[in-house]
Amino acid sequence: MIGNQVNYDNLLYRRQFLLARTALALFDGWKCHEIDHFYLYTHPDLEVTMTTDHTSSLILIGYIFDPNHPKKTNENILTDISALITTHHDLTQVLKSYVGRYALLYRDAANFTIRHDLYGVREIYYYTKPNRVVCGSQPGLLSKYSEPQLGFSQDPHIQHFYNIEMKAVRLGRLWVGDDTYFHNIKHLTPNHYLDIFTLTAQRYWPDQKLEKMDLDTAIERSCTYLQGVMHAVTDRFSVMMAVTAGYDSRSLLAASKDMRDQIYYFINKEVPLDDTSPDIYIPKAMFKKLDIPFHIHDVSGAVDDQFKKIYLHNCFWAQEKSLPTIYNVYFKKLQDKINLLAIGEPGREYYGHAPSNLDEYFLARCLKYKKSAFATRQCAKWLKEVKGISKEKNIDIMKLFLIEMLVGYWGAIGNAESDIAMEEFNPYSSHYIIEIMLSYDRRQGDLFKGMFDKMWPELNNFPLNPPDSMSEWLKQILRKTKLFTPLQRLVYRTDRWKYKRAMVGQSL
User: Fold this and answer.
1) Residue 197 half-sphere exposure, CB side, CA atoms within 13 Å?
2) Can you point out the beta strands (E) in 435-500?
3) Where are the domains of the chain?
4) Is the confidence at residue 507, as pLDDT, over 70?
5) pLDDT digits (tens, 9 = 90+) for 440-495
6) What percent of the chain has pLDDT over 70?
7) How far, in Å, CA of 126 to CA of 193, rounded?
8) Which end of the chain is more exposed for a tag (fewer CB within 10 A), N or C?
9) Buried b vs exposed e over 294-324: b needs ≥16 C-beta within 10 Å?
10) Which helix (H) or strand (E) holds 136?
């Protein structure tokens, strides 16, 4: 702040990066790191850590934590990783025990790769054809510095999806698949690394068959892991945490019990939330009972026009409806803190079980795209790749779909939107905790409630996600009856028939 005037000079492409084959004239204050004949450009608010030995180099863009050794820094962890690997293939196994929001470059005599955290929260977009720009954090940033500058895709399905279908669904910013709205630019899907020499994405996970785990073991390991993460992040950052009536945020709250005096707990009263909403009244009552300060933010207020312009410029998928919260709460009040955002849905039956005749339409429908040729086409491509892998590795295909096609796109975009104001971190973005969630025997009980009992039993005294409308209440009642599954199948078959009929004569 300068007097009453906000200095916006540092906000353009805040916390973003670009990897190029040639030297570029970027922005004042950006750092340039030379890696052989490549150039890594990073915004000054984005951490970069490097380690090099006589055979290889590791370059960390962002930050990483070791839940088993919470005091270790980025530098310590990179040194540990470097000592444990021989080639970039070794990273798959070694990185499982770590968590963070990062992109990681690996360089040796024969290989040059980049990968990200489990959910791909540190997004990576890349060119599919040779260009002076290789990859970066946003497609707009890549396009700006490409040569020649690339325009939007001419695929009519992509154009229709972006301009009409994508904006019509509730999630609003949910892209589907690795194609983008930009010609020759793709999005790196979670569980893949980019071979920088060949400009191709390669799947690296799942890498082994998952064995079943009993519930008690899963609870013990999950609690130890999350508590380690909370110790690590509070040791390094000033922390804030949104708490709702849901499972995920309560699991982080439980894990934070020993650090509760170090954390700013809050909830944003965004539309359509009000004082009668479970996400407001339940955490309010819970924190009052626990005698811990809890802050309810009013997000209303005007948004500075210059801030809005930069915000929409920084993130291609940014939504204006997120602006009041990002500007009035995170930017004006809390930008000195890191926000802990929990997405632990793979630990529950978010999409339920896959039908025996699973197809691309069922998957597109899960994403709320019941009539989209583009979404169906992208889901078909994904399904073809993973169907055999899912069976071979004993991984629930619907949970893999959730990780890669929902959280890895919609969730990651949410983090990218917030980068202009503050840093955000998902403690569940680790293969270690996800493998636990995919392995435990659900017939033995509820993983999350078991975690609450072990870490902070009082939290089980408060309701979890109660219905907040008559329709939600009726759905919950119906799910407990024998009618739910047949009705669900009937609705699905009707929707599928309508889609097939509409697509007659059209190429997917």
Assistant:
1) 9
2) none
3) 17-154+179-203, 215-347+405-466, 472-508
4) no
5) 988 899 999 999 999 999 999 999 988 777 777 777 777 777 777 777 777 778 88
6) 97
7) 11
8) N
9) beebebeeeeeeebbebbbbbbbbbbeebbb
10) strand 133-136
Q: What is the 3-state secondary structure (H, E, C) of 294-307?
A: CEEEECCCCCCHHH
What's the per-residue H, E or C state across 205-260? CCCCCCCCECHHHHHHHHHHHHHHHHHHHHHHCCEEEECCCCHHHHHHHHHCHHHH
State both tokens at 327.
Answer: 């500007």
* 112-116, strands of its sheet edge to edge: 48-52, 56-65, 99-108, 112-116, 192-195, 200-203
Structure tokens at 268: 């944003």
Structure tokens at 303: 């948004």
Give the model confidence (pLDDT) of 201-237 as tens digits: 999 999 999 999 999 999 999 999 999 999 999 999 9
Task: Give the residue carrying structure tokens 């917030």.
Answer: 418
- 438 vs 399: CA distance, rounded Å: 8
Upper half-sphere CA count for residue 140 (Cβ side, 13 Å)? 13
Residue 3 confidence (pLDDT) above 50? no
Q: Which CATH number fits domain 215-347+405-466: 3.30.1250.10, 3.40.50.150, 3.40.50.620, 3.40.50.10490?
A: 3.40.50.620
Exposure of 65 in the CB half-sphere (CA atoms within 13 A): 27
Gyration radius from the chain CA atoms: 23
The torsion region of residue 301 among left (phi > 0), alpha (psi -120 to 50) and beta comes to: left
For 171, residues 6+ apart whose C-beta sits below 8 A from its C-beta are: 367, 368, 410
Q: What is the CATH number of domain 17-154+179-203?
A: 3.60.20.10
User: Which among 309, 348, 380, 375 has a CA at the least distance from the CA of 445?
Assistant: 348
Q: How much is the pTM?
A: 0.93
Helix residue ranges, H only, 129-173: 139-145, 156-160, 166-168
